[in-house]
Amino acid sequence: MGAITAPLPVIGIRGEYEFADKWTFRASGEFFLVEFDNVDGALVDLYAGLDYAVLDSVSMGLGFNSVALDVDASKSGFQGSLDWQYTGALLFLKFDF
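Above: the chain's sequence. Below: its structure in token form.
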């Protein structure tokens, strides 16, 4: 089978809600699933966090992020698997321009 180059779709949703004068809640989820030939995999990226507007274009925040990648490939004479994940808290500065 020949090589195929194409954009791969990521399905996701993200949003933010300003619940007080300087406070915003942000959340997102992105999902990518693939089943092609002898490859089966998934990527999941989830985020939730709070931003506090220090200035009009500068915010600081605290968030939580989880990313998981699971890929399994099998071919005659080769079998493989990759299961990688991280989960943790974020402390950040955000600049809007």
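The domain at 11-95 is CATH 2.40.160.20 (Porin).
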